[in-house]
Specification:
- Helices cover 30% and strands 43% of the residues.
- With 155 residues, the protein is an alpha+beta fold.
- The chain has a single domain (2-150), classed as START domain (Alpha-D-Glucose-1,6-Bisphosphate, Chain A, domain 4).
- Strands 1-7-6-5-4-3-2-8 form an 8-stranded mixed beta sheet.
- Strand 3 and strand 4 form a beta hairpin.
- The longest helix has 16 residues, at 111-126.
- It starts with a strand and ends with a strand.
């Protein structure tokens, strides 16, 4: 099932894409604190691969991330873990002096255990995690002076 959310951001699309693709900025709006490992550049780019690990409900979640597209108006990636795979898409559209953002996350469980984990992730999304993330994304894009302290980058 795909979960979607939309918001308007009082910043230009380039600033929104900066916040969407820079790991230090992502931590300011992502619903789960995490560490990025193995990213060769300072931002997500088309073709980038990295490992992302964080904690949720006292359990470590780790995903291999593959960026399919990181352009001026879109970010598309797949995050694959041992039990779930998530296809994530953000589309950013210019809107007068602001930007419109559409987000979509499709969660798929792998096997029996994966179905349980997928339901837990969907419960997290149903509880408003995607809408909250977009609200935090808007804040970060509208306040570029904000210091990004929540993410650890590891080689």
């Amino acid at each position: 099932m795909a979960w979607t959310a939309n918001t308007f951001v009082g910043a230009d699309p380039g600033q929104v894409m900066d916040v969407l693709t820079r790991p230090g900025a992502i931590s300011s709006w992502a619903p789960v604190p995490f560490e990025v490992q193995g990213l060769d550049t300072d931002r997500l780019e088309t073709g980038s691969r990295a490992r992302v690990a964080g904690m949720m409900a006292g359990k470590e979640l780790a995903f291999e991330v593959e960026v399919h597209e990181a352009s001026d108006e879109a970010l598309r990636l797949t995050a694959s873990g041992p039990f779930v795979e998530m296809d994530v898409a953000y589309d950013v559209f210019p809107n007068d002096d602001s930007a419109a953002v559409h987000a979509s996350i499709d969660v798929k469980g792998k096997g029996i255990m994966g179905r349980f984990v997928a339901k837990a992730v969907e419960g997290f999304l149903a509880g408003g995690a995607l809408n909250s993330a977009l609200a935090e994304l808007a804040f970060a894009a509208e306040n570029p002076e904000f210091e990004y302290e929540h993410v650890a980058l590891a080689a």
